[in-house]
Amino acid sequence: MYRHFLVLVHDSDAGIDTVAHAVALARSVGARVTFVHLVREPREGARAASGRLFDDCVREMVAAKAEAAARALGVPCESMRVTGGVAQRVRAGDAGAWGCDLVCVAAQVVAARDGVGEAADHDADADADADADADADADDADAAAAGTDVAAGSVAAQFAAANVPVLSCAVRRSPAAARVVAALYSAHRATAVALCERLAHNGSPHPGLDALRIPRFGTADACLLSSLLRGRTSVVDAELGELERQHQRGKVLFEELERVAAASSAGDAPPERVAEALNGYAQFVWEYFGRKEGVIVPAAQRYLREADWREIEAALATAATLAGTGRPQPKETTRGPQGRRA
């Protein structure tokens, strides 16, 4: 029986699904998890200092979300970032050195290793459609990650060639479910990009603070999704309740950030206070997203029916039409089959 998983993580939809898959499996067998982010060091002068800070923030966010998902399910975990030449020389022996007996990677990584041009998933077309609908911010984030992350496919191939077990964490979704989940991930990523941009500039006040709010998709995302999920099962009621409490806490932290930013703009608070409030809020948001992506999305995947996903998708489409953008728009609401929010 496997006791210690090594999970290769990165900032992409497939990376999010890999964390959720690996953590759930680790919980079922009583294993612990080490999250590893393989990163190339940029060439000297390749990026401005603010760009490097942005990249560092994204990596911190990836680790924080993964750890939050593991903690929510009671799975012992740790994270490490392997950079520079060391990342280039990762070999199968490192799994043993780290005490890991199973390597978990995204399905696309294994497919690439085997020379297949698409993910090893019978819903690949659905995933492609979902990706096409994703926010442009997600595309930008993935493109940036591609420039700094070591190719995980080559690492997976090294482990497999050395007979170290490699688990392909494929997630099978219907077309409607794939589009809804992609929209959720896209909204989370847009907020993350806005936060990391602000953090990379040391929290300097500038317009657009609303982009840092924790998103909610009108009558769709968490509101309708959680109501439908409660109607199908009670196994995640406690987690949904905790997520709602966290959302309320996030609103309080955001309001405090607004106050500090306004005071700083007026010259009544030093920039350090803005940076401190922003860092605290960002860490909270990473953990909130991690719990949601690592616990609620997999539960919805398991218990919701196709009709439920289509209902959520229709609500997303309505919200997008009302907003006049063609894309889901996060906003507060109390609407839902049971009048609950989460």
From TrEMBL:
Q: Which InterPro entries match?
A: Rossmann-like_a/b/a_fold, UspA
Annotated region (Disordered) at 320-342
The record places domain UspA at: 1-108
One Pfam family per UniProt: Usp
What name is this protein filed under? UspA domain-containing protein
Its taxonomic path starts at: Bacteria, Pseudomonadati, Pseudomonadota, Betaproteobacteria, Burkholderiales
